[in-house]
Amino acid sequence: MTLSEEELEALERSVNEIDALSAIYGESSESGETDQDELDSCFSILSKQEMDVARSILRGEKAEVPTLEVEISTGVQMDDGTSEKIILKCCIPPGYPDHPVIPTASSKGMSWSIRDELSSQLAEIAESMVGSESIMGLVAELNEMCPPVLQRMQLNNESSSKSQETTTTSHGDGSYSRLWIWVHHITNNDRRKSIMAEAQGLKLGGVLKHGYPGIILIEGRSNACDDFATWVKGSKSLPGGFGRNLGHHVRGQVQLEAEEEQQLCFASDFQEMEDMAVLGQLCKEKGLEDEFREFAMRHKG
Questions:
Q1: What pLDDT is recorded for position 255?
Q2: What architecture does CATH give domain 5-154?
């Protein structure tokens, strides 16, 4: 594959920027460890094999320009003087910087909705910086954006804790639900990871059945189930997101007027599987065979 001068120049600029970032922030070792403090800035190349391919192309070898991925972790200063570790991942597509990087922001304990919000804002900034090297600029923007967002997240967590202590929801005190979501397929690895993380973060039990079809069975406090459904519907802008069609895929919601978690089938255990037969057997063992036939197999007995 012969590349044009413009394509070679773009690739060279990408590689040079990555080398500069490594020199500025300090690249982590193969084990991911550095001699730096946990909150110090640190840089990692997540696509080392692809980086080797990129360098070989610049040496004259013929190959397809790869997508590169890097990660920068940095300590963000909060208004109260404390620091929080923030991670910025950037996917660098072929043609960058004439095409924008795809940024993803995260932090320990950060909900997926907050991650999506930050990442969406960064993506808009990346679009505005097309034509120039943008990753260091995105790090600076993230440092500016994070303190108020993290503070809001802390306030929300405190408010949520108080709300749980005096539970007053539209479902009533101690109400639990089981929600079945059916989609054509769930095969994207990032989507699967995000579904697992969101369910576990909301302390929901259940099953993610990936592959064809895709089935999500969640069980727990009704307000947490509602939050999960809202999150899934709100992920339409993400790669592999369900989008507005979620409403057409919710096969059933079962209200469990239970006041004790011991009446739940899955408690806080959330597991993943691919085999529909295994899911069917599990539901049979837990007394959910009728629901499985109606909501997963899409017909009643």
A1: 65
A2: Roll (3.10)
